[in-house]
């Protein structure tokens, strides 16, 4: 197929990039995939108004730079074709082969992940994503490349979508890139996310780095020169390579705004990397570095003997030069360097693919299987699945040691309970206490790197964990093992506990049925929760596999439908009768001179769509129509006859109160700026409270006198323009 000049030039650029990588590529396959990409997406435009094919083309270039094979490059070019055009997966398989079709199918399914849907859907989508990764890791690498290019071009989307995608990137995709060991991709994803989530802080750090750049380059040049001379003198037969490194903006941001450090207090902004041929050379170089410079106590980390979960290996030491400037030195072999830079992609980039079973790859991907196994519980709680996966993808790890010297790595915040179950299920189940560095500690003790932990156990028959441990444990692995033990060993107790909990919630929500109907009602619910019998349902509630708080809304909805069917009410619709006015400026249809009360749950204001609820002895309570306490469908509610139509009369005279939450950077005078702005707008303040939150930010909650919804919107707009303000939201008090 003959392409026009623009397309031909772009393909040539892709082919040249492939040649520069030095791999054995199937250029014919990639050429055909490129042509199919161009023709299939013909006429389609991205949000930025550029031709759509440029997106998969850019993703393919990222895949080439990572060193992946021809099938992965072809799949990157075709990854949007099945979803966004008329081309079918069968056609892809026929034209490009089974491997390319499987990769395209995997990326297409993962592309449907949405974090704005219900939590259960989020959890299931995350699980599907991990399953796709376990089958072929190239699927995830293509998806990461897809996300990276989308983040690079994020400015074309509306501001809220920019923030949503950035948060999703920071919470899920960057940690996955970290676990796969693809450092450059992980850092760029994080930096791009922070640029949209906290642009002020991002630009402040960027400016600090820019101002210090000439100074930094001079420092790194001088240090590198001194190290080179010393190594050549002391290790004349050792081959080495030196390079400078600057910490990523997100890495600096975490230390400045999460840990509260000043820019000049971050010791590892500047780093020198020494790359040698052997592990022995690494330790020899370390000794010379500690002789040349003064090491900072507690800042040495040996990731060679104790690799990170993503198989990252290197020696890290922070030292102070003679001029008093702290900097980090990283020492590693070339193989470790390739793994650190390209992660799992290094297998393709430096080994011409994976032949047979590769133990290192198996070990690297073991965490995926562990998360999948841990998330196969009976719970329908999507939020728990998401939180568990995010925890297990934690970028920060702590390393603790058993008395025998075995190293156990866990996420930051993990407790001795997590440590016990990480050793073995039986150790966790028989645990009665723990010692850290020789002293007894409580079970909620948070582990710190380097601690020697001894788990105290008992052989007493029938001993097991406490239900409270589920709330203390951090890792999904520990939580799942505790639930499994209760499920297996305490069935009778679980049934009794679950039955009691369910009856309590039914009573609280007014769910009452005759005994025979209740039995049938509960049996149907149990089947929907994939429990064969009612006892299985009670047991699942008892050991925590099913959370009543999560399923009760659906149960209540089913109950209301059942009651309506068996004993249909005879409420008249909300009849539009003669309008009666009240002194509070609200019209209640069909009711004259009644007591009006504005509900505190939603604090309605003139201009809001409202509805009334007849209370016993307290007149009519006015709610916003979208209030959480107002049923979506009045006629299917429990007491439809008590809901009445209401609207604003237009001649209201009194003021109303409303509460705003203002979030911004915690700088000197932030509270003064807010109060001064409200004073200048002649707005009365009833209450105000300010507090610091994580990330160097501040939240101000203020209750004001408001005349109408329009008045409130104008106040919020004025406050949003103040220096350092991120958001202004109306909240209910």
Task: Write a concise synopsis of the structure shown.
The chain is an alpha+beta fold and 733 residues long. The chain is built from 29 helices and 20 strands. A hairpin with a 5-residue loop joins strand 4 and strand 5 (326-333).
Overview of this structure, please?
This protein is α+β, with helices and mostly antiparallel strands. Helices cover 50% and strands 17% of the residues. It is built from 29 helices and 20 strands. It has a six-stranded mixed beta sheet, with no helix packed on it. It has a five-stranded mixed beta sheet with strand order 1-2-5-4-3. The longest helix is centred in the N-terminal third of the chain and has 36 residues, at 199-234. It is globular.
Output the strand order for the largest sheet: 11-12-16-14-15-13
Contiguous helical run count:
29
- Give the strand tally: 20
Mean pLDDT across every amino acid position: 78
How would you sum up the global shape? Answer: globular
Indicate the low-confidence ranges by residue numbers: 112-118, 352-357, 376-382, 569-583
Query: Which structural class best describes the helix and strand composition?
Result: alpha+beta
Largest sheet: 6 strands, mixed
What portion of residues belong to β-strands? 15-25%
State the helical fraction.
40-55%
Cα separation of the termini: 66 Å
Rounded to the nearest angstrom, the radius of gyration is 31 Å
């Amino acid at each position: 197929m003959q392409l026009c000049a623009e397309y031909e030039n772009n393909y040539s650029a892709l082919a040249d990039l492939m040649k520069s990588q030095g791999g054995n590529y199937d250029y014919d396959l990639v050429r055909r995939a490129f042509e199919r990409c161009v023709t299939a997406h013909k006429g389609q435009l991205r949000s930025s108004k550029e031709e759509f094919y440029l997106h998969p083309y850019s993703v393919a270039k990222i895949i080439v730079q990572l060193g992946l094979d021809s099938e992965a490059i072809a799949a990157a070019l075709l990854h949007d074709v099945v979803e966004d055009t008329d081309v079918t997966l069968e056609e892809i398989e026929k034209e490009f082969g089974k491997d390319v079709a499987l990769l395209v199918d995997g990326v297409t399914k993962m592309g449907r992940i949405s974090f704005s849907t219900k939590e259960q859907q989020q959890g299931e989508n995350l699980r599907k994503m991990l399953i796709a990764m376990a089958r072929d890791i190239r699927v995830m690498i293509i998806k990461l490349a897809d996300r990276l290019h989308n983040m690079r071009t994020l400015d074309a989307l509306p501001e809220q979508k920019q923030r949503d995608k950035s948060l999703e990137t920071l919470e899920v995709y960057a940690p996955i890139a970290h676990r796969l060991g693809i450092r450059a991709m992980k850092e760029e994803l994080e930096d791009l996310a922070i640029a949209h989530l906290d642009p002020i802080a991002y630009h402040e750090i960027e400016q600090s780095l820019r101002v210090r750049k000439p100074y930094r380059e001079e420092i790194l040049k001088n240090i590198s020169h001194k190290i080179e001379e010393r190594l050549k003198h002391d290790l004349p037969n050792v081959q080495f390579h030196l390079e400078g490194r600057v910490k990523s903006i997100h890495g600096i941001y975490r230390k400045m705004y999460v840990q509260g450090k000043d820019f000049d207090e971050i010791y590892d902004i500047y780093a020198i990397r020494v790359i040698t041929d052997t592990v022995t050379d690494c330790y020899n170089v370390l000794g010379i570095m500690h002789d040349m410079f003064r090491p900072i106590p507690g800042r040495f980390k040996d990731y060679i003997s104790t690799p990170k979960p993503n198989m990252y290996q290197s020696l890290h030491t922070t030292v102070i030069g003679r001029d008093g400037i702290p900097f980090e030195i990283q020492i590693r072999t070339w193989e470790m360097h390739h793994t650190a830079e390209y992660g799992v992609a290094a297998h393709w980039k430096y080994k011409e693919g994976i032949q047979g079973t590769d133990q290192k790859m198996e070990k690297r991907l073991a965490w995926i299987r562990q998360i999948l196994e841990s998330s196969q519980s009976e719970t329908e709680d999507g939020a728990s699945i998401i939180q568990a996966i995010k925890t297990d993808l934690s970028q920060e790890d702590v390393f603790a040691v058993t008395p025998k010297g075995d190293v156990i790595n866990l996420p930051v915040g993990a407790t001795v309970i997590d440590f016990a179950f990480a050793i073995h299920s039986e150790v966790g189940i028989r645990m009665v206490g723990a010692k850290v560095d020789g002293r007894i500690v409580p079970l909620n003790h948070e582990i710190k790197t380097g601690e020697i932990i001894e788990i105290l156990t008992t052989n007493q028959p029938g001993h097991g964990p406490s239900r409270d441990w589920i709330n203390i444990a951090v890792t999904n692995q520990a939580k799942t093992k505790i639930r499994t033990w209760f499920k297996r060993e305490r069935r009778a107790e679980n049934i009794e506990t679950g039955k009691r909990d369910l009856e309590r919630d039914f009573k609280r929500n007014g769910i009452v049925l005759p005994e025979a109907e209740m039995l049938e009602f509960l049996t149907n619910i149990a089947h929907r929760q994939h429990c064969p019998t009612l006892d299985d349902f009670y047991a699942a509630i008892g050991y925590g596999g099913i959370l009543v708080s999560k399923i009760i809304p659906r149960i209540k909805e089913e109950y209301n439908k059942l009651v309506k069917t068996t004993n249909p009410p005879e409420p008249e619709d909300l009849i539009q009768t003669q309008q009666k006015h009240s002194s509070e400026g609200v019209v209640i249809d069909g009711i004259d001179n009644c007591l009006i009360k504005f509900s505190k749950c939603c604090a309605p204001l003139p201009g809001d769509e409202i509805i009334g609820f007849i209370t016993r002895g307290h007149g009519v309570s006015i709610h916003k129509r979208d209030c959480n306490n107002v049923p979506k469908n009045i006629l299917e509610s429990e007491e439809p006859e008590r809901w009445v139509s209401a609207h604003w009369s237009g001649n209201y005279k009194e003021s109303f109160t409303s509460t705003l939450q203002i979030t911004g950077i915690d700088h000197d005078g932030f509270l003064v700026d807010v109060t001064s702005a409200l004073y200048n707008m002649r707005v009365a303040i009833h209450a105000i409270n300010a507090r610091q939150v994580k990330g160097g930010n501040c939240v101000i909650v203020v209750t004001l006198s408001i005349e109408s919804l329009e008045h409130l919107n104008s106040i919020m707009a004025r406050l949003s323009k103040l220096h350092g303000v991120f958001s202004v939201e109306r909240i209910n008090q």
